[in-house]
Each structure stands twice: as structure tokens, then as C-alpha cells.
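Feature request disguised as a bug report, sorry. It would help if multi-protein outputs had a clear separator. Right now it looks like this:
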Amino acid sequence: MSYHPRNGAVTDAEGKRPARLLDQVRHKLRAKRYSLRTERAYVGWVRRFILANDKRHPRELGGPEVEAFLTTLAVRDKVAGSTQNQALAAILFLYREVLQQALPWMEDVIRAKRPAKVPVVLSQDEVRRLLAAMEGRTWLLASLLYGTGMRLMEGVRLRIKDVDFARNEITVREGKGAKDRRTVLPASLVPHLRAEIERSRTWHAQDVADGFGEAWLPHALARKYPNAARELGWQYVFPAKRRSVDPRDGCERRHHVDEAVLSRSLKAACRLTGIVKPVSAHTLRHSFATHLIESGYDIRTVQELLGHKDVTTTQIYVHVLNRGGSGVLSPLDRAR
């Protein structure tokens, strides 16, 4: 499959016929360096949009059909506001980047409501109980997310070169908003991380011996540094147990561990400990921030560790503390 910059058309490998529309969407997303998760989501929404309009080509559709589709998501399917926004972003990408058509301003779309929610936060005792019910790699990954404030995908995508034991810090590469940042490396996890990296080193050496061993490199680094992909520093701290074929280029390589493994482990730990709160990997990040503020750390410091662009995003954790039972004395207790 090849892309022709003059007319924006994508042809198959033999250059004879235009590629399918969904393949064109995938090609454009990869050319613009979108993540594989975003690619799958966008392609899924484009497919749903086409099916919702009796498989008509999007060139035959326009603003009214897009409005109807988005409204149906909110009214009939009752999706969350973020889900509707993702569907809109996918369709806008289709028209602007692939079909190169402008859509009119869609002011009649019924928007899904985005309720203001206070983040779920565990107490320090609940965190201890939760982690005590876990073991192995999932325990280490969960401990790392809580101890550093990293997002789930930032944790599983962590490269060996970005763990600095000498300075007790971790560099998070291309976090949300494509920004790098540094966060603290918990001293208690150092021996466990060293052991995990040693396992990654062993698996990498075996991969190289088998004729593989190249890690996926972001953007154009593979061309700029052709030997970097085989270097140990670019390997994942939490590699998958088996190699797999990368759908982006068809190469067999060792990817990072599947993030769903941690989600299942967290749910199992909640059942064992009797924690009834809806715990996810992001709950550990929320708990990290709240416990730092509880300990008296400056909100600007917490903002930098979390990688928030605006301090108002970080201030929600101050509201969590203020809304707790320790912040307000119930009038019932005063009456006694």
C-alpha cells in the first residue's frame, strides 16, 4: 500500500486500485504518528458511522448525517461525553485528513452530559491492603504506578534507559500531550526494578540470539538511529512473555506487557481485601496525588510530577481532601 501526496489517494501494494477506506484511515493515522490504541478506536468509529448510514460512502454523507450519528450516541446509546467526543474526533479526522472535505459547523448535535465526578481515592491503609494481596509483576507495576503517579500506559511503556537509579528518578516519555516529565523513583522498589530489568536483559539476549531483539521505536528514530532498536536501553522494563507480530509493520518483536493483566489483578485484589470502591490503575494515580497533598507537599510540585498542563486540574485533589469526613464536623456530632 502506498500514499500519493498530490491527490491524497492510497493504493494497494501493486499500485493498481485504491485501497479500502478503512485502510486509508489507518495509513493516515500512522503517517501522523497516532498510537495504535487511537488507531483502533478511530477505525472502529468510522466503521460504526458507515454502518449506521446503510454502508454508504462518507463522501455521499455530510453534516446532517454526522449530527444524527452523534445525537444517537447521546440519546439512544447514552454514551459518556468523552466517548461522544472521541467519535466526533474520529469522524472529523476522516473528513479532514483522509477525504479532505470540510464539514459544516454542527450546532444541532445533542451533546452527552459530562457529570462532574470526584476521583476515586484509596486511603493509605487501603493501598497497603491492596498491594499486599498482589504478587509478582502485577504487584510491582501497581506499586510503581502508586509510587510515581504514572498513568497505566506510561508504566507499561517504560523503557530501561528511562529508569535512573543514581538519581532516584524516572523519566516519563511522551506522556499526555506528548510531553516528557520526571517523577520520583520509590527507593523501596529499586531492588525489585533491578530484578525486573535483569529479566528483561535475559529475554532480550535470547531474542537477539534467535535473530530478533528489536524494540519498537517511536516516530522516525528507527531511521535516524538504525542500531538503537537492538540496544538494551530501548527495551521495555515490563516486556511481554512472548514475541508477537506488530500490526503496524508486520515485524515480530517483543512488545510490552498487556495492560489488561494489571486490571484483572487489581479486581482480584479488591475481592480478596473486601475493598468495594471501583478501583482501576488510574485510582492509584489519584491516590498518589492525594496522599502527597495530605503530607503537605506543594501543589505545584504535585502538578509537575503528574504532568498536568494546568494547576486547576491538580486542584481537584485539594477538593477531595476538603470534602472528606476529616474536613467537616457533622452537625449530629456537634449536638452530642
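(second protein starts here, but nothing in the output says so)
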Amino acid sequence: MDTQALLERQSFIELDARSRAKHLLDADTFSELLDPFERVRSPWLARQGIVTQADDGTVVARGELDGQPAVVLAIDAGFQGGSMGEVSAAKIAGSLELAAEDNRNGIPMRAVILFETGGVRLQEANLGLAAIAEIHAAIVDLRRYQPVIGITAGPIGCYGGMSIVAGLCSYLIATREARLGLNGPTVIEQEAGIAEFDSRDRPMIWSFTGGEQRHRTGLVDVYAADDASAIRAAVIERFRAGRPEACRSECVAGFLQRLAEVDPEAQATPQQAAAIYSKGFRS
């Protein structure tokens, strides 16, 4: 990309959650459901002395994408690190459930989820976990009718129970700046020791869980530049491609075959992981 094009590019990462949703949807079709004026916020945070946010950190946007009805669910990294509580996760789960119901009624509702999240909100514990489980079930239901597309761009990444949500998506799009993993670097270091994973070693972290490596190992379908227009184009392309022959979560046998090649006694390297997983897991 030349210098002028680089200067004119709109960074997707630098957009807030609401702006990301607006940019993905067709022009003048954005309509927010349960917006901040509805004051649907967490009933638990205030009891712990934590300032709440009127949308509980999740934007639900309805509109059209490539001329078709769509819902975009965008997580706000600026509130509680994008963590999921009872309300924010229920907004996502409920929207996906309604999208599946629309499809059963002949309305081809699509869904895009924008991940910027460390997973469940610890202050809401089991309530958040239960709602995330409802998101899992809703995606599996909806993706029978329409592809469910996930995007992780940065800077928070996608971890915890929400990384399972990402894994259940029909397609996953990531940028170089993104990270994707079940456990975050600090948690791995805490449980397995610094020799296993040094949470201060940023190059090492991205070499294992960054968007480029996740694409190389087949855990991400589209490796995109931090360009809002390019990411929208990638979303449209994936929707036009339709449902994949098999979603990642349906390829259990293939993943078990790849895992059997991993030597648990040896310190893993990004090169070894790429060599093993680049063989593929879809039969």
C-alpha cells in the first residue's frame, strides 16, 4: 500500500464499538436497539461500588449489510475491558436468538459479532457465564440458517468464554493486532509459571496468539489489514460464500488428530504449532 493510501485508510481498531457497527452496515440503515437511553445496565456493579454504563458495554445494531437484513453486536472495550456480564451477554444472546427466529419465519437475518473482550466479568461470575453459554447455544442455532461472522481486531483481543463464542462462529476475521486465546497471558503465567509463558514478552505473545499466527494455523479464516473498508468487504465476501461445509467446532476428529502430534513434554514454538495445524483439520 502506498503512503497516500495508508494515510487515507480508516483504522477499524481506532473506531469505538458503535462506530464499528455503523461502518459495517450499509449507509443510513443503522438503528440501535436497547441504546443507552433505555438505561438497561448491570444491576450488580453499583452494589460493588463500580460505576455502570447505560448500555452495559454492548451495542446492538440492526440494519442492512450488502442489502440484506443484519444485526451487528459490538463489544465496547472501553467499559470493564470488554468483559461480559449478565446484561451485556444477554443482549448478544437474545439478539442471536431473535435472528434465528427471523430465519425460521423467512427473514434471512445475518449476524456479526465484534469481539473486544477478556471474557466473563468477574464481578458477575456465574451470571455472566450462564449468559455466555446462552450465546454459544444461540450461535449454533443461527448458523444453521446463515453464517455467523466474528471479528477480532484489537487491542483487547478475545479471551475466556468469548473465545469459545469466536470458535463457534462460521467465519472469523482477525487483524495483525488481534489476539485470540482461551486463557490470557497473565493467567497462563500464573498457573503454569513464567518459564511456560512470560506475560511481559509481547512479541512472544503475538507469535502464539496474534491474528497472523491464528490465521496461519487455521483458527482464523480471514487475515485482514486494519482498514475499516477492507474488513467490511471481507464480511460481505464471507456472507456471499454462504455457510462453510463444516464449521470449526464440527471438526472434532480433525482437531484431535492435530493435537496428537503435539509433544506435551517439549516447549512449544510458534513454528511447530504452525507446522502442525497448517495441515488442516477438516476432513
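Even a blank line would do. Unrelated, but nice: The longest strand covers residues 58-65.
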